[in-house]
Structures are given as C-alpha cells and as structure tokens.
Amino acid sequence: MRRGILAALPAALAVGTGLLVVSVASGGGDAGPLRWSGPVVSFTHPTLPTDHIVSGRLRDTSMRPMRVVARRDIRVVDVHGRDLPASAVFTQTFGHGLFDPTRLPEARLPERELMRIGDVGRFQPGDELPVTVSWRDEHGSAPAARIAYPGGSLAIPEESAG
Length: 162
Prior knowledge:
CATH class: Mainly Beta
Largest sheet: 6 strands, antiparallel
CATH architecture: Sandwich
Number of domains: 1
CATH superfamily: Immunoglobulins
C-alpha cells in the first residue's frame, strides 16, 4: 500500500474519555527540511477541548545539519499566521525541567544536557527525532493550522469525530 493512501486513512481510537487519532504521515503539506515520519498521534481531551497535543517523529530531509531550540523555534500558528500559546519538546516522554542540583540556575546547560531533556533537537541529514507539541486555542481565535519552525512548517493532522 502506498504511503499517500495510508495518510488519507486515519484510524480513530477511543481511549478512556479522550479521542486519540493516529495517522501515518506521508509528509504531504509539510514545507521545509523537516517531515513527519511514521505515525503521528493527535489528542484532544473532551473536557479540555481547547488543549491539543501532537506527537510523532521528525526526519531531516535536507543535506545539512540543523539545530532547533524547541522553546524558541517551534511555534503553532493559526490560519492567519498568528502565534497560539504553545510548548514543544524533542521527546515523547515526560521529563522534568529541573536543573541538576550541582549546577547553578544561572549557569548555561551543556548542549548534551539540552538535547537529553528535549530542549534542543540536533539533526544530521536523514536523522529522526521524537517531538511533542501542545497548544491552546484562545477564545475567539482561528484554529491552529501549522507547526512552524525556522525554514519550514508542518501540517497538523486533522482529528476525526470518533
């Protein structure tokens, strides 16, 4: 079966009281060197309908290394290009944001530590890294349209109604 066909067939699964949508991304709608790779999970809890989470893997399709700082470089934008309140991390698991007690808070963390806690994604050509992005729709705002980063943007998988 072709990847493009798989991307058009999202499978909706009821999980607890939430709706979990899993789609296999083909990269369609993605612009720039980063592409969704494999399954992309999109979740909105029914009691928090303005809060959204998307989690998957990104692949660097460029021919050069990339460094992306999650908190600074990854944004969720609405259909008018306005930023929505969002958070991003290069991991698919929870990790606390506390610094090592042996380090002073004002000290800059080493690059390896920033990568370990998911604050920095360092891609070599062809590399894949996990990413989780969450955002909140503001009252009266347009819906989220894209996940933007310097040099490109990613399509947000559509959620189905169960």
